[in-house]
Every structure is written in C-alpha cells, then in structure tokens.
Amino acid sequence: MGKDILRNLRKDFLVEFRSRFALNVSASFAAIVTIAISLTAGGVPFPANVQAIILWIIIFFSAMNGLSHIFVREEDQGTALFLRTAVDVDSVFVSKFIFNQAFMAVILAVVTPLYLFFLQVRVVHAAHFIFSIAAGGFSMAAATTILAAMVAKAGGKGSLFTIISFPILLPVLWISVSSTSAALNAAPPAGGSLLFLLAFSGFISVISFLLFRFIWLED
After folding, report:
1. Would you say 141 and 59 are in contact if contact means Cβ atoms under 8 Å apart?
2. 68-117 pLDDT, tens per residue?
3. How many C-alpha atoms does 138 have within 13 Å on its Cβ side?
4. Could you give the CA distance from residue 105 to residue 11 in angstroms, rounded to a whole number?
5. Helix, strand, coil tally for the chain in percent (to 5)
6. In angstroms, rounded to a whole number, what is the distance separating the alpha carbons of residues 75 and 97?
7. What are the residue ranges spanned by the domains of the chain?
8. Is the dihedral of CA 197, 23, 119, 125 positive or negative?
9. What is the pTM (predicted TM-score) of this model?
10. Residues 6+ positions from 79 with CB-CB distance below 8 Å
C-alpha cells in the first residue's frame, strides 16, 4: 500500500507540475479578487469580523477551483479505469487526500499573505491566526476529497463541486471565520473553535475513507 501511495503521489505531482492548470487558476483568482477588494475599499479598514469573512470567502472559492481537479482529471484523461483495476482503493484515496492537503496548503500560503498585505490586516494573535487558517484549510480539504470523487464519477465539473461542497463546508467556514476573527481582536481567543475543526477533520476523514470504496468502484 505504501508503494502505491508514493507512486500515485509522484504521478499526481508531476502531472500538476507540468500543467499547473488548477494551481494557476486558483492563485490567479485569489490575487485578482484580493487586489480588487483592496482597490474598492480604498484603504478604509474593515472590522475584524468582516476581514475574516472576506478572507474565508476568497479561500473557499480559490480552493474550489482546484480541489476537484485531482479526480476530474483522472476521468477526463481516461486513467481512472486503470487506477480502479491496478491500484488498491485505499491507496488511491490516501494519495488523493494527501495531494489535496498539499494543494490546500499552497493556496493558503498564497492567499493569506496577499490578503494581509493588500488589505492591511493587523493580526493581534499571530499563533492563533496561523492555527485557525491551517485547521480550517485542513478541514476543507479533508471534507472535499470524497466529494471530488463523487463529482468526477457523475461527470460534473467545478460548478457542481462548489454547489455540493458548500452545505458540507458551512460549519467549517462558520467556525473558521469565528476563530480567525478572534485572532484579529484584542480579546484573548478561545481554543474551542480549533478543537472543533480538528475533530471535524478527523471524523470526516474516517467516514470518507470508509465510504470511498463504494463510490470509487461503483459502475
């Protein structure tokens, strides 16, 4: 299983590195929207809760442009059948899960500095802010991996993926906004929101791992 996971990861990263389609689309969207909001605001600072909401809206739609691509690409290129017959199901899920987590980490690394710089956001509690962004991004990627497989099997594209992902991710976005907003305020932030995000990530990852076989092998 370990060798299959490493081979799949190597293949996925090489394909993405050569095309960089999903990453370029997501990064371009994030940069354009962030700069547009900055120009529209004209230097007027937003309240902390508004700053957090805008940040997670940008992260959400930037991620939606690429998180489904890992499975949709397999269907479009005709390699999904080979994976189903030649590679262990659990290895496929784990490799795609890791890839989506890495993709999400890159999106966060691009979006967050751009947002802080162009909108002149002042972070009061830096450690809590970093953990909030990381935990929210991890939860988002964990929840959408199996949804991406469902969309690919249904022959859907990014728009369908965004529609079915939003209700699932609504609790994650809500808690992430609350936790991020707390990191931008002077009052000491509570750690309950981070615990919720970690618990949600663990729960959804286990459920996705158990259900993936039935989705991936369905005719």
Report:
1. no
2. 778 877 777 777 777 788 788 888 899 899 999 998 999 999 899 989 98
3. 17
4. 19
5. 85, 0, 15
6. 17
7. 2-216
8. positive
9. 0.89
10. none
